[in-house]
Amino acid sequence: MSTTTRQLSLNCCLLRFAVATGCWMVTCGSAPAESLAEANQLNTVAVETYQRAGDHETAVKLLERAVLILERTVGPEHPKTGIALDNLATSHRNLGNHAKALPVQERALAIFEESYGPSHKSTAIALDNLAGTHSTLGNFKKALPLQERALAIFQEVLGETHPSIGICLNNLAQTYCDLGDSEKGLSLQKKAVAITELSLGELHPNRIAHLMALGVNYSRLGRYEEAVDAIEKARLVANEVIEGPHPLKSEILHNLAGCYYYCNEHQKASLLAAQALEMRKELLGAQHPKTIRTLQNLAGSAYHQGNDADAKAYVEQLIELQQRNLESVLSLDEESRLSWQAENISYWFATLLSPNKLAQLLLRWKGVVLDSLIEDRALILSSSGDPRARAKLEEISQLRADLAKTAFNSSQKAESGRLKDQISRIERSLSEKSGSSGTARTALSVTLEQILPALGEHAVLIDLFRFSDLREEGSKRRCYGAVIVDGLGNVSFTQISDADGIDQAVDLLRTALLASDSNGVEKFTELLSAKLWAPLSQSIAPSTRQLIVCPDSKLSFLSLACLLDAQAKFVGESFTVSYVGSSRNLARKPGQAPGNTLAVFADPIFDASSKLLSSVGPANLRAAEADAFGGINLAPL
What we know:
The protein is α/β, with parallel strands linked by helices and 637 residues long. The protein has helices at 33-53, 56-73, 79-94, 98-116, 121-136, 140-158, 163-178, 182-200, 205-220, 224-241, 247-262, 266-284, 289-304, 308-329, 334-344, 355-365, 368-381, 387-406, 413-435, 442-445, 452-455, 499-514, 518-537, 571-574, 623-629; strands spanning 2-5, 23-26, 459-468, 478-486, 491-496, 546-550, 576-579.
């Protein structure tokens, strides 16, 4: 009988935090005494000393050694090995190494399910930990069923008032909040606080964490006074029972700063955020996702107060750290990459950067996930001499075909989830292969100088993006930005207000076009010309003859050539207008000559059941595409 103490949840930074301090008992068979004793000692010291102190780098080294010993002694599928793997994944996750954490956690879960069955508490722990990593990545839809399953197991095995029920309820509540159901999340959080107070008392760290999470959700609902009250209670108890710097204390400071920010108490918010940042740097390191989010909040608060000097300094650090994290994230599976991008990539600080720095940032960040997926597939497909890579691609193709059959059938939800998990695991292994092949990610290495030859003397690039200006209020906060680059390397930035109004006008223009409503077409063309083209045209030199447009959001559905200039002429009458999916498409490698191959696509057959689709190739659909389009059949033209 061995006892392993672990932190169940130290999950997402802003809205997720729960710490389990109970002991999990696992019965294991016999093994060689010396080696097994060494592995047990390594595991115990890693968890109880280094993980608790926040030194996850040391914990990783000890746990990796423990796993190697256990694999040789008790075997790679033994529960003791599963425990060490689960602890190892926890440290990887807390270091921000999600690409390493996910497969390790999945392996631990598989071991527990095989050894103990699907309804054992060790299985429930592994489920909740795996859900925590998905949540940290912003992949809440994957986290939800894992947490629901973990909660059901704990309720069956431990009863309704066990401390672990409070932990699971709190984590589940956070996921519902992250998915937009704050009212349900609030109800579950209140229940988690009540169970924890009953089972562990008012001074237990779990109650502190649950009070904090309750306060964050109050803040989401705009109930700021209740939010501050709950989190200040958590802070008071934490300072009483926890000595020195601690991850839970840093989480409280971070979230309390957010609440005071929304209460317009910006000086108090900045002070708390600065304290949280220093503590997180000490405990987690500068590159950890939680540290980065605190840094982002501190930068935003400084910007909102008009303190541009401090805000710029914070933003420079933020960009550098996020750029490094991209290198790790691009080795994850497709859905995890997309989720991370949605949670972490934004351009609220656009007005703080010089136009050149902003242009460089857009080159490397905008559409980076899609580019990385395309690059992965191209690299793997070019490895024709590797039969294993080809076999994996064929397996993905078959799994996506199976997934398409479940796309619109709610009764096959479980089967759909199983297929997605299989696809994700294979995609991660393929991404790791491409990342280790020695080929640099185009998205992370492209420079502004590389696109200039494609522009020449008379063309400009207009790189459009949507962002929020934190100094504005309400709908005024949502803007479009345009970075305009000419062939000589001159870069300018134009901020275009009322992004919501522009998006609405685009939708109404498209509706009018489909309905052949000439009055509507005229009205919304004139409106968009005034709102969009008029400010853009101020930054375009008179000698310009070609516009190369990289659109964003709803502007992807608008033809700039059909807007009107100040003389009521179509823009297309004065300029040649072309489009690129990413400004990186203009970049050429050193010594690379322009291509002279023309590809023509015509007379398509839009029949999803056609046998011709099998000739497109094994990577023809992404997982998200299979979900959305897998069951649609269209008649040929």
